Amino acid sequence: MKIENYRLTEAGDFGKKALIAGIIGIVIAAIGYFVDAEQFFHSYLTAYAFWASIGLGGLFLTLLHHLVGAEWSIVLRRITESLMMALPIMLILFIPVILGGHHLYEWTHSEVVAKDEILHAKSGYLNMPFFIIRTVVYFVIWFIFGQILYKMSLNQDNGDQTKNHRMRQISAPGMILFALTITYAAYDWMMSLQPHWFSTIFGLWYFGGTLLTTLAFLVVFGLYLRGKGVLAETITVEHYHDLGKLQFAFTIFWAYISFSQFFLIWYANIPEETIFYLRRWEGSWMYVSLGLLLFHLIIPFLVLIPRANKRNFSIMKWIAIWLMAMHWVDLYWNIFPSHSESFAKGVSWGGLWVDAACMLGLGGLFLWFMWTKFSAKPLIPVGDPKLSNSINHVVI
After folding, report:
1. Per-residue pLDDT of the chain (396 residues; tens, 9 = 90+)
2. Which terminus, N or C, of the chain has the lesser number of Cβ atoms within 10 Å?
3. Is 107 exposed, middle or buried (0-12, 13-18, 19+ CB in 10 A)?
4. Residue 196: exposed, middle, or buried by beta-carbon count in 10 A (0-12, 13-18, 19+)?
5. Half-sphere exposure of 358 (CA within 13 A, CB side)
């Protein structure tokens, strides 16, 4: 990679490698479909929820940046903007979820709905045409706000300072609609896998994991650029320190939301609700449940406490990768046991190669699309009047 005036004059092969990896992953995943369709669609949905969450996290952080008038995060804004601008490809990649609806969602089986009073009562909401319409509406909303903010940001690079306050005004309703859409997307894509069960906090759980893994991605991607000599003096140790503090905070937030959901269901002791956790305490799922407590909370919590760790690039890189891996495990734990027959008794160890292929396939395509946006424009918002404050940011 070569950079001049914060623009890549030589983009390197990141995008090409990501695209090749994506194609290879999709091909291997397609083989998995013919081997075991149930495994494939559950693996695909897990990978889809993971990569969509990073795009959504980019949108949220961009909205939040403008809404609060942050300065320290200006140098990271073009990365979050590129993440949110990769969301349109996730709409295309949602097609296999629709095609696999019969394998994933019990409420798509008309004969089951006809015999089930609860599913029949929910059929006005849980039906495939309305499911598709809602998903399209979510992506339209995300795209509109992302496109408006991205266009204003690029205009700002070209010297147009007239819309600076407008970005904040647009982010206010954007944040409200973001909260509603990510909540209902979580309900539709994942909570409806177990349609008799519900949790009003489920959308907040997905948001917590979304933000945590996006912060981790910013660390990994930023350090990748640093290793290539790109933005090494612009995204400094001070910014990674702040990202580390936010990772620490949202590790606790994720744990708080997850425990709150468990505690309320345990205390109420209603069979329709406790079934969610009972399924995840059978067979090898019990070890995954305990593992999330240890590996998703306790280890990151302890690692991110010391100030020195948050200023150590090696530690920050590996704990960020760790948190991203734990986000995938958390999604896997939420998605797979919901199927009452194939995966209810334990982890599908033989299907992990399909899981890996889906993650590689969707991740490669997502990162390729994101890189095309990122590498085509200035790597930071060069027209932001407070850019120098961000570059010279010092953690207090």
Report:
1. 667 778 888 888 899 999 999 999 999 999 999 999 999 999 999 999 999 999 999 999 999 999 999 999 999 999 999 999 999 999 999 999 999 999 999 999 999 999 999 999 999 999 999 999 999 999 999 999 999 999 999 999 988 888 889 999 999 999 999 999 999 999 999 999 999 999 999 999 999 999 999 999 999 999 999 999 999 999 999 999 999 999 999 999 999 999 999 999 999 998 889 999 998 998 899 999 999 999 999 999 999 999 999 999 999 999 999 999 999 999 999 999 987 666 777 888 889 999 999 999 999 999 999 999 999 999 999 999 999 999 999 987
2. C
3. buried
4. middle
5. 27
Distance of CA 127 to the CA centre of its chain: 25
Distance CA 241, CA 151 (A): 30
Q: How far apart are CA 346 and CA 374, in angstroms?
A: 41
Q: What gap in Å lies between CA 277 and CA 258, rounded to an integer? A: 12
Between CA 149 and CA 23 the distance in angstroms is 31
Q: Which of 61, 91, 92 is nearest to 78 (CA)?
A: 61
What SS3 class is residue 260? helix
Determine the Cα–Cα distance for residues 110 and 60; give it in Å rounded to an integer: 37
SS3 content of the chain, % helix, strand, coil (to 5): 75, 0, 20
How far is C-alpha 287 from the chain's CA centre? 24
Query: 216: closest CA among 184, 250, 175, 253?
Result: 250
Taking a C-beta distance cutoff of 8 angstroms, is the pair 363, 86 a contact? no
The CA distance from 64 to 174, in Å, is 10
Q: pTM for the complete prediction?
A: 0.96
Neighbouring C-beta atoms of residue 165, cutoff 10 Å: 11
- Cα 351 from Cα 34, distance rounded (Å): 13
Q: Which of 22, 24, 189, 186 has the alpha carbon at shortest distance from 89? A: 22
Helices (H), 190-236: 202-227
